[in-house]
Design goal:
Strands 1-2-3-4-5 form a 5-stranded mixed sheet, with helices on both faces. It has one domain: Gcn5-related N-acetyltransferase (GNAT) (Aminopeptidase). Helix 1 packs across helix 2. The protein is globular. It is built from 4 helices and 5 strands; from the N terminus they run βααβββαβα. It is an alpha+beta fold and 157 residues long. Helix 3 links the parallel strand 4 and strand 5.
């Protein structure tokens, strides 16, 4: 199923391909609920600005299938006080519709797990939109657990 798929670190030359996939992701999410606000896609410029150079705040993985980008996973490493250890925060995981169900998402998650394990951590933390049943089912299949005792909060301060 995942034969020939290569999971590798995000490279600067991947920025345009990730932008394209991010646009596909935004269209997918908009189709789930057209009344929701548009999700702005990542741009090649924002990827280059945030993932490369001295001020990089995000890293990534790219899945290549048959020589073509098939998906990506973005992450940042931060401290998780509950474990007194680093955790991998995953703001974005996307697999192209044409290859969904082939195990690419699982491979991306497994590589992310190896990354945080190598850093001495044991946790990947992410959000999933409650209107995305396909993603929720996927995350449950790979062993994801809902943290019902905590609330996601944000501040634009």
């Amino acid at each position: 199923m995942t034969s020939g798929v290569v999971i590798r670190p995000l490279r600067e030359e991947d920025a345009s391909a990730v932008e394209t996939m991010s646009r596909e992701f935004a269209a997918y999410l908009k189709a789930l609920d057209p009344s929701e606000e548009d999700v702005p896609p990542l741009t090649a410029a924002s990827i280059r600005a945030n993932a490369f150079g001295p001020e990089a705040c995000v890293s990534g993985l790219v899945a290549d299938s048959a020589g073509e980008p098939a998906g990506y996973l973005l992450y940042s490493i931060a401290f998780w006080a509950d474990d007194v250890a680093p955790a991998l925060f995953m703001p974005d995981l996307f697999v192209r519709e044409t290859v969904r169900g082939a195990g690419i998402g699982r491979l991306l998650m497994q590589e992310a797990a190896q990354i945080i394990k190598a850093r001495g951590g044991k946790r990947i933390i992410w959000t999933v939109w409650n209107k995305n049943p396909e993603a929720i089912a996927f995350y449950k299949r790979v062993g994801g657990e809902l943290i019902s005792s905590e609330l996601l909060m944000t501040w634009s301060g």
